[in-house]
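Methods — Computational structure assignment.
A single polypeptide chain was analysed. Its primary sequence is given first, followed by the predicted tertiary structure written as structure tokens.
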Amino acid sequence: FTVEVSPHVPSRAYVAGHRMLLGDYKPYAYVTEDYGQTWRSITDGIPEGDFALTIREDVVQPGLLYLGTEKRVWVSFNNGRSWRSLQQNMPIVQIADIASTREDIAIATHGRSFYIMYDVAPLRALARTNGEVAPVALFPPNPAERAVERGASIYYYLSQPADSVTLEFLDEQGNVIRTFTGTSADSAGPAQGGGGRFAGGDTRPSTKAGLNRFLWDMRYPGFTDFEGMIMWAAGNRGPMAVPGTYQVRLTANGQTQTQPLEIRMDPRLEGEVTIEDLRERHELAMQVLERVSEANEAVILSRDVKAQVDDRLAKTDVAQIEEVGQRVKTKISDVEGRIYQVRNQSSQDPLNYPIMLNNKLASLLALIERGEYRPTDQMYEVFESLSGRLDEELNALNLIIATDLAELNRLLEQNGLEQVRAEQKGKVTT
């Protein structure tokens, strides 16, 4: 038999045992609330023939019990007054022991090794409502630790499939920093994003009925990218959120619910790194991210302008328009080629061709985000240098738009053709 002393109530204890060797296969489990003076049977819902072997109370949530029997694991949300199967994807197997931890439960079996149920926050939430759950429910998430966990686990329940599910993550000021949306037409999983080597992508929340899990990587949105972009050692991931209190907001089936979400610093760095260090890292990373987006937006603009020029040239045979149009394309291509390595066609091409400005900035962003420490002086120096060079290229692009493209547009207008539309990029002057 097993004796479990409650980690929450001093007068409470549990006992689980069996009389299998005497030919009695009934489950036996009891609880006392008065230091053993009286005992109450707590086996309602356990079928006869599935005898009990071990019982444990959750270390976080009082009254949440786990019972190991000859065939499976059971859970009680009401201190043993009723039980539900927690077998999930486990085989029919004898449960030798159960251990409850701050976030998970570990299960030892007879002959089938160990099983771990990660993140039992939903079970703890159900125990607080006596096992009842609303048609749409966003469960309180466990705190997430930077650099230790892959992300913050968000659990939500839908009694019916949803046409769409939206999860929003808000900072301490209530500003939305990340939004994820899944629809019934989508399959939960990676969405297209990034491109090229080390590319990442967002994840769509599931719209299926039942308990759903979403993993937020605790990062802000990545930089602006473009179709076919290939860069080296620079995945499109936004900066990681600074430790603090955030919010997660679920919208599904006409209902909206919000829960607080705590992001913690890596506990292994306590005494070595401060929140101020990580906040400084975040601020620099956001500045670099903005500059990468500006560089990529300049590439997008360059390609859009060249495509428009080609369209106009195909509609006229005026020699002067042809001459000025080709000049515009050549000058813009020169700027584009200094911002982005246009010869990259495959993920390995950056080994053959020089790394250009947007890739250098994106690689700097990746280096800033690589370690849990404040940015080095060299990082600031490199950023200042690359940022200045980017300003020069944006300035050159703006000058082309203000002069050469303006000349082309005058010719197009004189000949009854639509002008080429373009907006100057960056906070620089011509």
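Note: Helices lie at 121-128, 275-313, 319-339, 357-368, 377-414.
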